[in-house]
Design goal:
Layout (H helix, E strand, L loop, with lengths): L4 E10 L8 H22 L2 E9 L3 E9 L18 H13 L7 E9 L11 H9 L5 E7 L2 H9 L7 E3 L4 H21 L1
Parallel strand pairs: 1-2, 1-4, 4-5, 5-6
Antiparallel strand pairs: 2-3
Length: about 190
């Protein structure tokens, strides 16, 4: 029996106060990315399920493992406030998705974390996330978009693979470039599948 390709794509979005000025841009870029995933899902005949998390002082799952063809806009859901608990959010999203039933089909997980700053609120420590990332099976890929070299260094301490860390410009133009990057990465990812 031929196994269906099932992609679980996760967006973990910084919703700290510093993201307030980019709120509308984040919504537009990630809504467009989800629409693009729906288009590519049809073209490649791969089921694509999307989860969206936002994090500030705590982590909130906005959408969990939903078919990208049926996903609502995140406009009414994404609400920046507070501090930055990046480690906790990454851990929570991974722990949630680890519970996903993968009994039938060829399942893979692609998780993107977007942050405009360093963690300043998590209860979990960098070594805890590093241990979690190290133990993930081969069908998981976790990437982070960070604002600067200091954040890149901090993310490496958290166990993110250096090749999966990219700096982004925390501006309106920068968030548009993030959208372009995500489209290229997901295209390559789905083609490789």
């Amino acid at each position: 029996m031929k196994q269906n390709y099932i992609n679980h794509i996760v967006f973990v979005l910084d919703a700290s106060s510093s993201m307030s000025g980019l709120k509308d841009d984040v919504v537009r870029v990630f809504d467009a990315q989800i629409q693009y995933l729906a288009q590519r899902s049809k073209e490649t005949d791969q089921e694509t399920r999307v989860s969206v998390y936002q994090f500030a002082e705590s982590t909130e799952c906005l959408v969990f493992d939903k078919d990208c063809l049926r996903l609502p806009s995140i406009k009414e859901l994404y609400k920046p406030y507070g501090w930055t608990a990046l480690i906790d959010a990454t851990m929570k999203s991974i722990e949630d998705l680890e519970k996903t039933n993968t009994l039938y089909g060829d399942h893979s997980f692609l998780l993107f974390v977007l942050s405009d700053g360093q963690d300043n609120r998590s209860f979990n420590r960098p070594f805890g996330l590093a241990s979690k990332l190290e133990k993930l099976p081969d069908n998981w890929t976790v990437a982070v978009l960070a604002p600067d070299a200091i954040s890149v260094s901090e993310n490496k301490k958290c166990g993110f693979a250096p090749q999966n860390i990219q700096i982004w410009d925390t501006s309106k133009k920068g968030i548009e470039e993030v959208g372009d990057t995500l489209r290229k990465v997901t295209d390559n990812y789905m083609a490789a599948r």
